[in-house]
Write a structure and sequence with these properties.
By secondary structure, the protein is an alpha/beta fold. Helix content is 38%, strand content 19%. The chain has 15 helices and 20 strands. α1 (41-56) runs parallel beside α7 (210-219) and α9 crosses α10 (301-315). The protein starts with 6 loop residues before the first strand and ends in an 11-residue tail after the last strand. Pathway: Amine and polyamine biosynthesis; betaine biosynthesis via choline pathway; betaine from betaine aldehyde: step 1/1.
Amino acid sequence: MSGQKTIYVDGVWRDAETGGTRDILDPADAGVLATVAEGGLADTDAAIEAARRAFDKGEWPNTPVAERAALLRRVADLLQRDREDIALLESRDTGKTLEEGRVDVDDVTAAFRYFADLVVNESGGRVVDAGSADVHSVVVHEPVGVCAMITPWNYPLLQASWKIAPALAAGNTFVVKPSEVTPLSTVRLVGLLAEAGLPAGVANIVTGAGDPVGARLAEHPAVDLVSFTGGLASGVKVAQAAAPTVKKVALELGGKNPNVVFADACATEEGFDTAVDQALNAAFIHSGQVCSAGSRLIVEESVRDRFVAELARRAARIRLGRGTEKGVECGPLVSQQQLDKTERYVASALAEGASLRCGGERPEPDETRPTGGYFYCPTVLDNCHRGMRVVREETFGPILTVETFRTEEEAVELANDTEYGLAGAVFSSDTARARRVAGRLRHGTVWINDYHPYLPQAEWGGFGRSGVGRELGRAGLEEYRETKHVYENLRPAPVRWFAG
């Protein structure tokens, strides 16, 4: 993608009004991967105006549900047609492995098909019993209007789809601003929407920085809803900017997610191997750059020494390299900024008394790890406690901290001792205990004897500072709808409330 026409407004690809551009860097070698348009206020306002016209005067909001669903299914088919190309694009842009990119494309495909099925199978509204045969009362759902979508750099295609698919299914129009670090797959997705036949103005994209593009989307009075996925500090700014116009706000702001391992989960060799393997999966997929990453291992004291020793041994053997290379298990961090941040977190943890069990450094360059790439070794930090920054804050890097517990009550207390509440896991061979603990965890998703799978038909979101609202599932569709009550008097007559 070498051209600069990555802004799409009212059905036309265009350059930025200012002519500005931005180089997109390959995280594996810091070379220029692509050049995109650097949008600004004028581009953002034009995109919002196009979405507003398309909603107020266009055909999409009133398009029959079956036709909207059919378009979503066409997009799903196009995603599968271009699966390899899009997966490669996502791998090179974000640094993740090619296989992870393929999984992302499949998950995006599933999201479009799920929301197509959900809306087409709905009834025409919910009839409400008004207690009178002379009244017909029904609750219906209508699209919110113009939706602003601000997406993160770690899963750009996936997170865009979680917003775009339900928004279109509900009949909305939108403007999406992908992360300025990884915008390429979202640009490609918008192109597929156009190819599938989406009317001009319904889908718009502005590539550019959070300030000014994201800030303008959040504050603009013609925007009816803003959906943001990203960091806590930026999410707070989005909510503050949206408040004066009282627009709907949905925020997914990350997490600091506990992975609780009871000794009974390790009572057999198979159980021990599974729990260790899942702890690695929880912490180091996509170099830990996952909002639901199990970055806090909370393990029962009686098995802690053996568990951590094996965990560190396996973590040290994770094969780092360019995500497109065969045999690579983990790619680089997304940027120099993220690499520097990871190093600062490890340094602060060691200064606060943590024990380094593996990692804690950049690997030596080789044929799969070019010089200049943003690589960092998977890192296990033992003897951690809640007072450490690395335990409290979302690191978004390949860092796993280890805490221990002796009792079930202590395990629950530790797992809930966070201002976030996005996800968590419990590993135990005692089904009653696992379900009991899962029921007490204050997190939006809790896995039992597993980590990371999600379903498009199940809601995703968090408690506390992990955000407000939900994506996916029925609630994910409702985020993009307004609820209206229509009350019809079948036998109108004077009320005679006033004597006249």
